[in-house]
Write a structure and sequence with these properties.
Layout (H helix, E strand, L loop, with lengths): L5 E6 L8 E5 L2 E7 L5 E5 L13 E3 L2 E3 L6 E2 L5 E3 L20 E4 L2 E5 L28 E9 L3 H7 L6 H4 L1 H4 L11 E5 L2 E5 L23 E5 L3 E8 L3 E11 L5 E9 L6 H22 L21 H32 L1
Antiparallel strand pairs: 1-10, 2-3, 3-4, 5-6, 6-7, 7-8, 9-10, 11-17, 12-13, 13-14, 14-15, 15-16, 16-17
The structure holds FE2/S2 (inorganic) cluster and fe (ii) ion.
Length: 345
Amino acid sequence: MLHDVWYAACQAADVTTDPRMVTILDHPYVLYRSHANQLVAVDGYCPHRGCDLSIGHVDNGELVCPFHGWRFDKTGQCTRIPANRADTPIPKRFRLTTYPVLECSGMVWIYTGNQDINSSELPTARSFATFPELTDENWRGVPFQQTWKAHFTRVVESVIDVSHLPFVHPEVTGTDVDPTVDGPEYHVRENVIVIHPTPFAPSHPMEPVHPEQTSTAKSEIELRFPNQWIIRTPFGDHGMMCTFLTFTPINDHVTQIFGLALRNFDHDAPWLDDFHIDHTIRVMEEDQRIIESIRPKIAPFALRDECHVASDVPTIRYRVMLANALEQQSTRRSSSTQITCRGID
Ligand code: FES
Ligand SMILES: [Fe+2]
Protein backbone atom coordinates (compact mmCIF):
# COMPACT_ATOMS: atom_id res chain seq x y z
CA MET A 1 0.00 0.00 0.00
CA LEU A 2 0.92 3.63 -0.28
CA HIS A 3 2.89 4.91 2.69
CA ASP A 4 4.24 8.13 1.22
CA VAL A 5 0.99 9.98 1.87
CA TRP A 6 -0.55 12.41 4.36
CA TYR A 7 -3.35 10.44 6.05
CA ALA A 8 -5.93 11.88 8.44
CA ALA A 9 -5.32 10.26 11.81
CA CYS A 10 -8.06 11.63 14.08
CA GLN A 11 -9.98 14.75 15.05
CA ALA A 12 -7.63 17.50 16.20
CA ALA A 13 -9.67 18.07 19.36
CA ASP A 14 -8.89 14.49 20.40
CA VAL A 15 -5.15 15.16 20.58
CA THR A 16 -4.17 16.71 23.88
CA THR A 17 -1.31 16.34 26.34
CA ASP A 18 -2.78 12.88 27.00
CA PRO A 19 -0.96 10.58 24.53
CA ARG A 20 -3.32 8.94 22.05
CA MET A 21 -2.71 5.82 19.94
CA VAL A 22 -3.80 5.65 16.28
CA THR A 23 -3.12 2.93 13.73
CA ILE A 24 -2.48 3.57 10.05
CA LEU A 25 -1.45 0.81 7.65
CA ASP A 26 -1.07 -1.51 10.62
CA HIS A 27 1.53 0.79 12.18
CA PRO A 28 0.91 2.18 15.68
CA TYR A 29 1.53 5.90 16.22
CA VAL A 30 1.25 7.92 19.39
CA LEU A 31 0.09 11.51 19.07
CA TYR A 32 0.32 14.17 21.73
CA ARG A 33 0.73 17.91 22.19
CA SER A 34 3.98 19.17 23.56
CA HIS A 35 4.83 22.76 24.55
CA ALA A 36 2.74 25.53 22.99
CA ASN A 37 0.25 23.06 21.62
CA GLN A 38 2.88 21.59 19.30
CA LEU A 39 1.78 18.29 17.72
CA VAL A 40 4.12 15.32 17.96
CA ALA A 41 3.72 11.93 16.25
CA VAL A 42 6.02 9.08 17.28
CA ASP A 43 6.12 5.30 17.18
CA GLY A 44 3.52 3.86 19.51
CA TYR A 45 5.70 1.49 21.57
CA CYS A 46 8.70 2.09 23.76
CA PRO A 47 12.08 0.94 22.38
CA HIS A 48 13.06 -0.39 25.83
CA ARG A 49 10.55 -3.19 26.48
CA GLY A 50 7.76 -2.33 24.10
CA CYS A 51 5.27 -0.72 26.45
CA ASP A 52 2.29 1.06 24.89
CA LEU A 53 3.25 4.73 25.13
CA SER A 54 -0.35 5.94 24.95
CA ILE A 55 -0.75 4.81 28.55
CA GLY A 56 2.19 7.03 29.51
CA HIS A 57 1.96 10.75 30.06
CA VAL A 58 3.50 14.03 28.96
CA ASP A 59 5.59 15.94 31.47
CA ASN A 60 7.26 19.24 30.70
CA GLY A 61 6.75 18.56 26.98
CA GLU A 62 8.35 15.11 27.10
CA LEU A 63 6.65 11.75 26.62
CA VAL A 64 7.19 9.51 29.65
CA CYS A 65 6.91 5.73 29.38
CA PRO A 66 4.82 4.28 32.23
CA PHE A 67 6.92 1.10 32.60
CA HIS A 68 10.41 2.33 33.64
CA GLY A 69 9.99 6.07 33.26
CA TRP A 70 12.18 6.65 30.20
CA ARG A 71 11.57 10.12 28.76
CA PHE A 72 11.53 11.14 25.11
CA ASP A 73 11.69 14.67 23.73
CA LYS A 74 9.69 15.92 20.75
CA THR A 75 12.43 14.74 18.37
CA GLY A 76 11.96 11.22 19.74
CA GLN A 77 15.35 11.15 21.49
CA CYS A 78 15.48 9.46 24.87
CA THR A 79 16.57 12.15 27.33
CA ARG A 80 16.43 10.33 30.67
CA ILE A 81 16.67 6.76 31.93
CA PRO A 82 15.81 6.87 35.65
CA ALA A 83 17.48 3.50 36.36
CA ASN A 84 20.84 4.92 35.21
CA ARG A 85 22.93 7.52 37.01
CA ALA A 86 22.13 10.96 35.60
CA ASP A 87 25.62 11.25 34.02
CA THR A 88 25.35 7.95 32.12
CA PRO A 89 25.40 8.68 28.40
CA ILE A 90 22.26 7.73 26.48
CA PRO A 91 22.97 6.15 23.09
CA LYS A 92 21.60 8.08 20.09
CA ARG A 93 19.76 4.99 18.94
CA PHE A 94 17.61 4.97 22.09
CA ARG A 95 14.92 6.91 20.36
CA LEU A 96 11.45 6.88 18.89
CA THR A 97 10.96 7.56 15.21
CA THR A 98 9.04 10.80 14.71
CA TYR A 99 6.70 11.52 11.81
CA PRO A 100 5.68 14.71 10.00
CA VAL A 101 2.36 15.78 11.47
CA LEU A 102 0.04 18.77 11.00
CA GLU A 103 -3.41 20.06 11.79
CA CYS A 104 -5.81 21.13 9.06
CA SER A 105 -9.59 21.60 9.04
CA GLY A 106 -10.03 20.11 12.46
CA MET A 107 -8.11 16.95 11.63
CA VAL A 108 -4.61 15.75 12.49
CA TRP A 109 -2.70 14.40 9.50
CA ILE A 110 0.38 12.17 9.63
CA TYR A 111 2.84 11.58 6.81
CA THR A 112 3.45 7.86 7.07
CA GLY A 113 6.24 7.66 4.51
CA ASN A 114 9.49 5.82 4.97
CA GLN A 115 11.53 7.48 7.67
CA ASP A 116 14.72 5.74 6.54
CA ILE A 117 15.12 7.96 3.52
CA ASN A 118 17.22 11.08 3.80
CA SER A 119 15.26 13.30 6.16
CA SER A 120 15.62 16.26 3.80
CA GLU A 121 13.33 14.35 1.44
CA LEU A 122 10.55 14.10 4.01
CA PRO A 123 7.71 16.52 3.40
CA THR A 124 7.04 19.52 5.55
CA ALA A 125 3.58 20.76 6.45
CA ARG A 126 3.91 23.15 3.50
CA SER A 127 3.77 20.22 1.11
CA PHE A 128 0.32 19.27 2.35
CA ALA A 129 -2.41 20.13 -0.14
CA THR A 130 -6.16 19.92 0.08
CA PHE A 131 -9.27 21.50 -1.43
CA PRO A 132 -9.72 25.27 -0.98
CA GLU A 133 -13.07 24.80 0.78
CA LEU A 134 -11.29 23.25 3.77
CA THR A 135 -9.13 26.24 4.56
CA ASP A 136 -11.34 29.17 3.48
CA GLU A 137 -13.11 30.78 6.44
CA ASN A 138 -16.20 31.42 4.31
CA TRP A 139 -16.90 27.72 4.60
CA ARG A 140 -18.40 26.06 7.64
CA GLY A 141 -17.44 22.39 8.06
CA VAL A 142 -19.23 19.92 10.32
CA PRO A 143 -17.13 16.82 11.02
CA PHE A 144 -18.26 13.20 10.94
CA GLN A 145 -16.52 9.87 10.60
CA GLN A 146 -17.20 6.26 9.73
CA THR A 147 -15.34 2.97 9.92
CA TRP A 148 -15.84 0.50 7.09
CA LYS A 149 -14.67 -3.11 7.10
CA ALA A 150 -13.30 -2.81 3.59
CA HIS A 151 -9.98 -2.29 1.88
CA PHE A 152 -8.89 1.28 1.09
CA THR A 153 -8.94 0.62 -2.67
CA ARG A 154 -12.56 -0.53 -2.71
CA VAL A 155 -13.68 2.37 -0.54
CA VAL A 156 -11.99 5.04 -2.67
CA GLU A 157 -13.18 3.48 -5.90
CA SER A 158 -16.77 3.56 -4.65
CA VAL A 159 -16.78 7.37 -4.53
CA ILE A 160 -15.73 7.78 -8.16
CA ASP A 161 -18.12 5.11 -9.42
CA VAL A 162 -21.07 6.95 -10.94
CA SER A 163 -23.05 4.03 -12.34
CA HIS A 164 -23.96 2.64 -8.91
CA LEU A 165 -25.94 5.74 -7.95
CA PRO A 166 -29.42 4.76 -9.22
CA PHE A 167 -29.07 1.29 -7.71
CA VAL A 168 -27.58 2.01 -4.31
CA HIS A 169 -29.00 5.50 -3.78
CA PRO A 170 -32.40 5.62 -5.50
CA GLU A 171 -33.58 8.27 -3.06
CA VAL A 172 -30.78 10.56 -4.22
CA THR A 173 -31.09 10.02 -7.96
CA GLY A 174 -34.81 9.28 -8.16
CA THR A 175 -36.28 5.86 -8.82
CA ASP A 176 -37.22 6.40 -12.46
CA VAL A 177 -33.88 7.54 -13.85
CA ASP A 178 -32.30 6.02 -16.91
CA PRO A 179 -29.19 4.27 -15.53
CA THR A 180 -27.25 4.84 -18.74
CA VAL A 181 -24.06 6.73 -18.01
CA ASP A 182 -23.19 8.59 -21.15
CA GLY A 183 -19.49 8.92 -20.68
CA PRO A 184 -19.16 9.49 -17.77
CA GLU A 185 -18.08 13.10 -18.16
CA TYR A 186 -14.69 13.33 -16.52
CA HIS A 187 -11.15 14.60 -16.93
CA VAL A 188 -7.79 13.97 -15.29
CA ARG A 189 -5.08 16.48 -14.55
CA GLU A 190 -1.92 15.62 -12.66
CA ASN A 191 -3.11 13.97 -9.46
CA VAL A 192 -6.77 14.93 -9.76
CA ILE A 193 -9.76 13.17 -11.31
CA VAL A 194 -12.85 15.34 -11.86
CA ILE A 195 -16.19 13.73 -12.65
CA HIS A 196 -19.59 15.20 -13.39
CA PRO A 197 -22.05 12.56 -12.22
CA THR A 198 -24.42 13.33 -15.08
CA PRO A 199 -27.12 12.26 -15.63
CA PHE A 200 -27.52 11.72 -11.91
CA ALA A 201 -27.32 15.33 -10.73
CA PRO A 202 -28.26 14.57 -7.14
CA SER A 203 -31.40 16.23 -5.92
CA HIS A 204 -30.14 18.19 -3.00
CA PRO A 205 -31.10 17.15 0.53
CA MET A 206 -32.31 20.72 1.17
CA GLU A 207 -34.38 20.92 -1.99
CA PRO A 208 -37.78 20.68 -0.32
CA VAL A 209 -37.04 23.60 1.97
CA HIS A 210 -35.07 25.67 -0.52
CA PRO A 211 -37.05 25.44 -3.76
CA GLU A 212 -34.85 28.14 -5.28
CA GLN A 213 -32.25 25.52 -6.13
CA THR A 214 -32.32 25.26 -9.89
CA SER A 215 -32.62 21.94 -11.65
CA THR A 216 -29.73 22.94 -13.91
CA ALA A 217 -27.34 22.86 -10.96
CA LYS A 218 -24.56 20.45 -11.76
CA SER A 219 -22.65 18.56 -9.16
CA GLU A 220 -18.95 17.95 -9.49
CA ILE A 221 -16.84 15.25 -7.91
CA GLU A 222 -13.11 15.76 -7.46
CA LEU A 223 -10.67 13.16 -6.24
CA ARG A 224 -7.27 14.39 -5.18
CA PHE A 225 -5.10 11.31 -5.47
CA PRO A 226 -4.86 9.17 -3.50
CA ASN A 227 -7.14 9.83 -0.55
CA GLN A 228 -9.10 13.10 -0.63
CA TRP A 229 -12.52 13.51 -2.26
CA ILE A 230 -15.14 16.23 -2.48
CA ILE A 231 -18.52 16.60 -4.10
CA ARG A 232 -19.67 20.16 -4.84
CA THR A 233 -23.33 20.93 -5.37
CA PRO A 234 -24.41 24.47 -6.33
CA PHE A 235 -27.18 25.76 -4.14
CA GLY A 236 -29.44 28.66 -4.99
CA ASP A 237 -27.83 31.61 -6.74
CA HIS A 238 -24.53 31.83 -4.90
CA GLY A 239 -24.37 29.10 -2.33
CA MET A 240 -22.57 25.81 -2.51
CA MET A 241 -22.77 22.70 -0.40
CA CYS A 242 -19.94 20.21 -0.41
CA THR A 243 -19.18 16.92 1.23
CA PHE A 244 -15.51 16.19 1.83
CA LEU A 245 -14.18 12.73 2.59
CA THR A 246 -10.69 11.45 3.26
CA PHE A 247 -9.78 7.81 3.56
CA THR A 248 -7.26 6.30 5.95
CA PRO A 249 -6.25 2.64 5.68
CA ILE A 250 -6.11 1.26 9.22
CA ASN A 251 -5.09 -2.13 7.85
CA ASP A 252 -6.03 -4.37 4.92
CA HIS A 253 -9.50 -4.94 6.38
CA VAL A 254 -10.56 -1.61 7.80
CA THR A 255 -10.72 1.91 6.36
CA GLN A 256 -11.47 4.98 8.43
CA ILE A 257 -13.38 7.76 6.70
CA PHE A 258 -13.15 11.33 8.01
CA GLY A 259 -15.66 13.76 6.55
CA LEU A 260 -16.82 17.35 6.61
CA ALA A 261 -20.27 18.58 5.65
CA LEU A 262 -19.42 21.99 4.19
CA ARG A 263 -21.43 25.02 3.11
CA ASN A 264 -20.62 28.64 2.34
CA PHE A 265 -23.91 30.17 3.51
CA ASP A 266 -26.11 30.28 6.62
CA HIS A 267 -23.32 29.34 9.01
CA ASP A 268 -25.57 29.88 11.99
CA ALA A 269 -28.29 27.40 11.11
CA PRO A 270 -27.79 24.23 13.18
CA TRP A 271 -30.68 22.48 11.47
CA LEU A 272 -28.72 22.77 8.20
CA ASP A 273 -25.83 20.97 9.90
CA ASP A 274 -28.15 18.16 10.97
CA PHE A 275 -29.83 17.91 7.61
CA HIS A 276 -26.56 17.68 5.70
CA ILE A 277 -25.01 15.19 8.12
CA ASP A 278 -28.11 12.98 8.26
CA HIS A 279 -28.34 12.86 4.49
CA THR A 280 -24.63 12.08 4.09
CA ILE A 281 -24.60 9.35 6.72
CA ARG A 282 -27.67 7.70 5.17
CA VAL A 283 -26.00 7.67 1.73
CA MET A 284 -22.75 6.35 3.17
CA GLU A 285 -24.49 3.55 5.02
CA GLU A 286 -26.10 2.51 1.74
CA ASP A 287 -22.61 2.34 0.22
CA GLN A 288 -21.03 0.60 3.20
CA ARG A 289 -23.29 -2.46 2.95
CA ILE A 290 -22.28 -2.94 -0.68
CA ILE A 291 -18.57 -2.15 -0.40
CA GLU A 292 -18.01 -4.40 2.61
CA SER A 293 -19.49 -7.28 0.60
CA ILE A 294 -16.94 -7.05 -2.24
CA ARG A 295 -14.54 -9.92 -2.96
CA PRO A 296 -11.66 -9.95 -3.51
CA LYS A 297 -11.27 -7.39 -0.79
CA ILE A 298 -8.36 -5.64 -2.51
CA ALA A 299 -9.03 -4.19 -5.96
CA PRO A 300 -6.97 -6.17 -8.49
CA PHE A 301 -4.59 -4.30 -10.79
CA ALA A 302 -4.79 -6.87 -13.61
CA LEU A 303 -7.64 -5.69 -15.83
CA ARG A 304 -8.57 -9.23 -16.83
CA ASP A 305 -9.38 -10.09 -13.20
CA GLU A 306 -12.62 -8.13 -13.39
CA CYS A 307 -15.09 -7.19 -16.13
CA HIS A 308 -15.07 -3.53 -17.15
CA VAL A 309 -17.37 -1.25 -19.14
CA ALA A 310 -17.15 2.38 -20.27
CA SER A 311 -18.67 3.74 -17.06
CA ASP A 312 -15.73 2.26 -15.12
CA VAL A 313 -13.14 4.46 -16.79
CA PRO A 314 -12.52 6.76 -13.78
CA THR A 315 -11.94 3.67 -11.64
CA ILE A 316 -9.43 2.32 -14.12
CA ARG A 317 -7.66 5.69 -14.19
CA TYR A 318 -7.43 5.57 -10.40
CA ARG A 319 -5.94 2.08 -10.51
CA VAL A 320 -3.33 3.22 -13.04
CA MET A 321 -2.43 6.19 -10.80
CA LEU A 322 -2.17 3.88 -7.81
CA ALA A 323 0.00 1.35 -9.65
CA ASN A 324 2.34 4.16 -10.79
CA ALA A 325 2.53 5.66 -7.30
CA LEU A 326 3.33 2.27 -5.77
CA GLU A 327 6.07 1.73 -8.32
CA GLN A 328 7.58 5.16 -7.58
CA GLN A 329 7.40 4.47 -3.86
CA SER A 330 9.19 1.18 -4.30
CA THR A 331 11.88 2.82 -6.48
CA ARG A 332 12.44 5.48 -3.81
CA ARG A 333 12.77 2.80 -1.17
CA SER A 334 15.17 0.63 -3.10
CA SER A 335 17.43 3.59 -3.94
CA SER A 336 17.37 4.59 -0.27
CA THR A 337 18.40 1.04 0.68
CA GLN A 338 21.28 1.16 -1.79
CA ILE A 339 22.53 4.41 -0.28
CA THR A 340 22.36 2.86 3.19
CA CYS A 341 24.25 -0.23 2.02
CA ARG A 342 26.94 1.88 0.37
CA GLY A 343 27.27 3.81 3.62
CA ILE A 344 27.89 0.53 5.48
CA ASP A 345 30.51 -0.58 2.93
S1 FES B 1 9.30 -0.21 28.48
FE1 FES B 1 9.38 1.93 28.36
S2 FES B 1 10.77 2.52 29.85
FE2 FES B 1 10.83 0.35 29.89
FE1 LIG C 1 -22.47 5.64 -3.23
